[in-house]
Design goal:
heterodimer, A: 338 residues, alpha/beta, FAD/NAD(P)-binding domain, 2 domains, 5-stranded parallel sheet, 23 strands, elongated, B: 107 residues, alpha+beta, Ubiquitin-like (UB roll), 3-stranded mixed sheet, two-stranded antiparallel ribbon, 5 strands, globular
């Protein structure tokens, strides 16, 4: 059990800057994110796309913004818990007990939800029959590639994950790559390689087809694919892999008894607290009259939520407003010398 | 201004007058029409404003896809050759009478 002042859910720009503000006012926090890296949408959706509306930064990419924020909170040495997801919350004696999917437990008076539009999950096959094999022979990520040795593997998708795995697995498996159109969005070198492997019959490349059904008797045996004009083919398959990118799901957040407005959480704009005492929501996931889904709004919201957290983390102390330019306490926390 | 018809997967029809310059996606969101999520808010980075243009004449009449739209559509729910991202369809008088069909789901 880790005891802390605040658990932040979401390591996007909003969560990171909120962590900075907590550090500045002398609070500790632990940051949990479902992705395997820090940065949220900035890093997952648009690492290379320039952003033009960060105050005083005329232009920066999602990746640069993330790296600068990581740098900014470095002095506080906060822990990140990546590839993990907050699953359950329980209130006990005004403390929140927080459990994650990987079994970590936190005790905290404050939770800040900076979850964007929810957690990123792989997009799955639309076919109901695929659910039965999910995690066994229908996979959306690969942990151990040795299981495919000597097997028939049918890969769906046209991006880098699909192409890279098709190339990699073609060494030791019978690979079929299926994509809905003739163009691929993977890097040109991989696309070229796939075409070569297809030309010399190392892999089967089938375009303009998508999944129709998976079939098996206990274990997976084949996958049926369809074209838009209605033709279908059946391919022998021991494993079916789908790489259609990530989608965002609200996930367990919807089960915590918070008021929800569509996929967002209403908050008050004084401290961004939700209807639950000690649970705050900031960034894209919160809503209030006039809400703008801008990174800069998330920064403002995080700063105020941090002060809201102070009240519950230090009930016997009075919060004192200080400037970073002037306060020696803050400079100590930042580890800077005059 | 254009009258846009949005048809949900279950057949429910909605009609909205959408001002020029807005996207077909924004027309749906501003009028509380269900079936279009638009998680990323119009940045062409999520594929949750996916629609089908079932009328071939209309599909051809729409401005062509820019680079990247098909890449995003690869990641949509059940994309087809008549799929578009509604955030990329900017409304003008020319779009008056357009009908878009929503997929069974976005995520």
């Amino acid at each position: 059990m880790i005891k802390t002042d605040v658990v932040i859910i979401g390591a996007g720009p909003t969560g990171l800057f909120c962590a900075h503000q907590l550090g500045i006012i002398g609070l500790k926090c632990e940051i949990v994110d479902n992705l395997d890296k820090i940065g949220g949408q900035c890093i997952e959706l648009y690492p290379d796309k320039p952003i033009y509306d960060i105050p005083a930064v005329p232009k920066c990419t999602g990746e640069e913004l993330t790296n600068n924020l990581i740098e900014q909170i470095k002095p506080f040495n906060f822990n990140f818990h990546l590839s993990d997801r907050v699953q359950k919350l329980k209130n006990e004696n005004n403390k929140w007990l927080v459990k994650t999917l990987n079994g970590k437990e936190f005790e905290t008076p404050n939770i800040v939800i900076a979850g964007g539009v929810g957690s990123f999950e792989p997009r799955k096959f639309p076919t109901k029959s695929a659910e039965k094999y999910d995690g066994k022979s229908v996979l959306y990520s690969i942990k151990d590639k040795t299981i495919f040795k000597g097997k028939s593997v049918v890969i769906f998708g046209g991006g880098d994950s699909a192409l890279d795995w098709a190339i990699e697995l073609s060494n030791s498996s019978k690979v079929t790559l299926v994509h809905r159109r003739d163009e691929f969005r993977g890097v040109p070198a991989s696309v070229q390689k796939i075409k070569e492997l297809s030309d010399n019959k190392t892999i089967d490349l089938i375009t303009k087809y998508s999944i129709k059904d998976v079939k098996g008797n206990g274990s997976l045996e084949s996958v049926e694919i369809k074209s838009e004009s209605g033709e279908s083919k059946v391919i022998k398959a021991d494993y079916v892999l789908g790489f259609f990118g990530l989608i965002m799901q609200l996930g367990p957040i919807a089960e915590w008894g918070l008021n929800l407005d569509k996929k967002t959480i209403p908050v008050n704009t004084e401290n961004f607290e939700t209807n639950k005492k000690g649970i705050f929501a900031i960034g894209d996931i919160c809503t209030y009259p006039g809400k703008l889904k801008l990174i800069l709004s998330g920064f403002h919201e995080g700063a105020l939520a941090a002060r809201g957290c102070f009240k519950y983390a230090r009930p016997d102390e009075k919060y004192r407003f200080e400037f970073t330019t002037a306060s020696s306490t803050i400079k100590d926390r930042l580890g800077v010398k005059e | 201004m254009a009258k846009i018809k949005y048809i949900e997967f279950n057949g429910t029809e909605h009609e909205a007058d959408v001002a020029n310059g807005l996207s077909v996606m924004e027309g749906a969101i501003q009028n509380d029409i269900p079936g279009i999520d638009a998680d990323c808010g119009g940045g062409m980075s999520c594929a949750t404003c996916h629609v089908y243009i079932n009328d071939d004449e209309w599909f051809k009449k729409l401005p062509e896809k820019e680079m990247g739209e098909d890449d995003m559509l690869d990641q949509a729910f059940e994309p087809k050759s008549n799929s578009r991202l509604s955030c990329q369809l900017i409304v003008s008088d020319d779009l008056d009478g357009l009908t878009v069909h929503m997929p069974e789901k976005q995520v």
